[in-house]
Structure formats: C-alpha cells, structure tokens
Please model this.
Amino acid sequence: MKVEFYGHIRQYHNIKSEIDANIKEVLESGQYVMGPMLKRFEGELANYHGTKFAVGVGNGTDAIWLALLALGVGPGDEVITHPNTFFATAEAIWIAGATAVFVDCDSNTRCIDPAKIEAAITPKTKAIVPVHLYGQCADMKTIRKIADKYKLFVIEDNAQAIGGRGDGFKIAELSDATATSFIIQKNLGTFGDSGALVTNNEKIDATARKLRNHGSNQRNVHSFGFNSRLDDLHAGILSAKLKHIDAWNDLRRKWAAHYTAGLKGARNFSLPFERSGGQHVYHLYIIETKKAQQRDALLKFLNDSGIDAKTHYSIAIHQQAGYPWGKSARVSGSLANAEQNAATCISLPMFPELTEQEVDYVVAKTMEWDKSQ
Ligand SMILES: Cc1ncc(COP(=O)(O)O)c(C=O)c1O
Model:
C-alpha cells in the first residue's frame, strides 16, 4: 500500500466544480491582478478571522516582512522567534533588515516558550514572532502580556494554523498582524504560491497595501515598495477552498485522534501534545523518537513501507550550514528543546482526504517498527 503525504488532487476533485467556476469567473472578468476576485477573497478572509482588514500578498514569507516593514521594524532592531520553525520565519526577519533572536521552544507544544522571551529582550527588541507550529496556537496570552510590558509588536506566523484557536483567544486577536501562507501544502493552500496578512490596524493595512504594489495605491503615484500581490486566479481558488476549511480541519482532527488512539502504547516515540482549551488543527501530525539515532531508521522504515513520512524540520535554523550568512542573528540561552525537536521529529501523512484504511496502515507499520526496537 502507498500512503502519500499530501492529498492535493483528491481535494481538487472533491470540490472541482467550485474551483473551476471561480477560475472561469476570473478568466472571463478580464481582471487578473488586483481585480474583483482579490477584493472578494480579502473580504472573506478578514471575515473568517474576525479582523477589519486582510491584504493578499505574494507568499507567506512576504506577509511576515511586509508586516515588519509596515510597523517600521528594520535595521538595528531585534525580533524574537524560535529556531524550530520553517526557515522562512527567520528569513523574513532578515529580509526586513532586522536581527533574528532565537529563544528555545516549549518542551511539549514545540511553539515558542514564553518563559524564555524576557531574558532575550534588550533595548533593541521591537517585536516577537510566535509561530502556531504544526497547527497549534502558541501561548498568545502570555506573549501579549510580555509584549505589553516591554511595548513590543507581535506578528503571528500563522502559516500552519488557519482555523486554529487558542485557549480563550482567537488567532489574530492578540497581535498587531497575523501572516498566513497559502502555498499548496498548507491547510488552506492554492495551486502555487500566495499569502496574506490580517490585522485590525488601519496603518498596517494601508502601508502593506501600498508596499505590495510598488508603493502605489493610485495609478502613476509611487513611493518605495515591492511587487508582492496575490493574483486573482489564486484568490478565486482560495475563495472556493475557504468555505471548506472548518470541515477539513475537523477531518484533520479526526485523523489525528485516530493516529493517537492507535499509537498511544508506543515505547520508542512520543505523540503530539495538545494543549487543552484550544483547537489544534493538525497541519502536521508529529511524533518524536525517544532517541535521536532512532529517527532516521523509523523514517526509512516508513518510507520503505510505502508511507511518505517526512520531517518538519530536521535542521534547526541556527544549525543550518553557514548560519547566519552574514546576517544579524543572536541566540538567547539554551536551544536544547528546539534541537531535540529537530533531531527526533517525524511527520506522518496528514490531510483531510486520508482514508481510514490508509491511517490504519500507517499506525500498523509505525507500531511494527516500535515493537521491533
Ligand atoms: C511557519 C512558516 N512560516 C512561513 C512560511 C512561509 O510561507 P511561504 O512559503 O508562503 O513563503 C511557511 C511555509 O512555507 C511556514 O511553514
């Protein structure tokens, strides 16, 4: 049996008529960039998050640095994040010209550990970028309190948790801006690249809107800017898909529960930690081997069994070759939890369109390996 890691084609086939109708609507409109479909999707996205504004941009990385730029964060400023995230979180800080400051992650959730943030704050610190890693919200209430105490901005990296909820807070509620990626492999993914930022801050909205369009919101009138727009074809695809995101997240949670029930007796790896009171949307279902030297063996066993398991992310950012490439970066304290996460993580196939038979097969093979240890 083969179990793929993604279900892009299954998902397309399931809602083909809705996606095709939106694509046709854009093609027939003659307006493909900054057209009515983008406007419609931005409205739907803001509405979904309960924010006043949504700005569609070229990708999730741009959404982070455009938010930083819109807040005036740049050279000489420090931005705190954690190193066991997709590379783009730190890359965006560097693109903005700021210094990336890495603190450790929580030993359970693997999101940023708020207890490590205060020790990393200096007079240069301007912002915190927590990541809702794997689909689970970072501890935003504590992060917001620290940000208020030191007058810092907070930009949520929500590339992995659209539809997730915190314990008593919503994504985008406790930050200045929230950045999202719509690359195909995300919970809400288009057939290519794009991203967005959502915010309640009028100034961030207006500035990001200009910055993404060559510094212009009026024909022929420009200030310094970039080209980072979400085009209307992608907006149409995303508009069709957004209607299904809650149902898809429910299915992700269902398969996660199925994995957890089947794998809970394992002795050689741990299962994802779910904080109570919120909603983890399982963008990724991550297990961690008890010993680092077991990880590659289990990964190979699964791959050899036809299961497309992967790792997210097996090299922490500060451990990448050549780090920090002449860019400004600082490590604050021990990063032992992040390094352990990188050394032991395995992502099992996770997408809404999985079948019970596929999930059962993954469980059976993973347990077969566990028993062989
Ligand atoms: C946590 C995180 N941040 C940022 C990004 C960057 O998004 P994009 O690839 O759309 O630039 C991604 C995904 O790729 C991500 O997983």
